[in-house]
Amino acid sequence: MSAIDALPPLRAVIAEHGLSARKSLGQNFLLDLNLTAKIARQAGPLAESDILEIGPGPGGLTRGLLSEGARRVVAVEKDSRCIPALQQIAEAYPGRLEIVEGDALALDVKALLTPPIRVAANLPYNIGTELLVRWLTPPEWPPYWESLTLMFQREVAERIVAKPGSKAYGRLALLAQWRSTARIALVLPPEAFTPPPKISSAVVHLEALPEPRFPADPAVLSRTVAAAFNQRRKMLRASLKGLAPDIEDRLLASGIKPTERAEQVSLEQFCTLARNLAE
Ligand code: SAM
């Protein structure tokens, strides 16, 4: 492995700071700095961007982002044991790494970042989907971020990029593809992580579109697709009946057959239905 920066190898950092991986915090660390540099390069033009990193842990991806030239990184980590290891990185890259200790689900660190802002993270699996949905559904668009480069379980990554008619198509595909372009940038085997998880992972790269592909209210669209796919085997007139008493008429007015199942309905049709339901 080549020396990407002058800091000690990550295994030594983990040993020095006693960072045994905790399952409760979704800790599967990336220790190969060539690999973390490769992931960092997927995040777009780093030199002209501030990067928000969630869950830096011992700092593998943080080091990748900085060594690949990120203008600044703001890293939010919940595990206090990791903070001294991250401070060593901050000292090696003066003025370019800000560490925030806390829960990414509870903190809003936007004010610490200067646009353009990109998000990069090897996310804890237990909060990844929740954070992604939050990033995709703010009331206003465009969002504060230009792109999201995020590690997920491979199966979740496939749900984000899925097309209508496929088994993986659902709420995540619709919300992601409504306001951004989404692609799988890298697939990683379990052995890339320490400890290895049971399944493969994938890095998804999403670029925010200047405006949504079709107009719709994010809260109404989100509710509609959640209801449609919660009972994906049912016909839409049944799965959506809780949303409006005259749902059959609304489906017909939106160009959707009430007997259709969620899997067959396009993004454009869901947006039309969401607009009809918002009336
Ligand atoms: N980025 C590191 C890497 O690639 O080796 C660590 C990745 S590990 C999958 C997830 C990291 O997120 C852990 O360091 C964990 O402590 C942290 N984490 C878990 N829940 C968090 C939360 N709610 N807010 C911020 N960080 C969290």
Can you give a write-up of this model?
The protein has 279 residues and is α/β, with parallel strands linked by helices. The protein folds into two domains: 3-208, 3-Layer(aba) Sandwich (Rossmann fold), CATH 3.40.50; 218-278, rRNA adenine dimethylase, C-terminal domain (Helicase, Ruva Protein, domain 3). It has helices spanning 10-17, 33-41, 60-67, 83-92, 125-136, 154-160, 171-179, 218-230, 236-239, 247-253, 267-278; strands spanning 29-30, 50-54, 72-77, 97-101, 117-122, 145-153, 180-188, 193-194, 201-208. The strands form two sheets. It has a seven-stranded mixed β-sheet, with helices on both faces. Strands 1-8 form a two-stranded antiparallel ribbon. It is elongated. It starts with 9 loop residues before the first helix and ends with a helix. The model has no long low-confidence stretch (mean pLDDT 96). Bound molecules: S-adenosylmethionine. S-adenosylmethionine (SAM) is lined by residues 25-30, 54-57, 60-61, 76-79, 82, 103-105, 122, 124, 127.
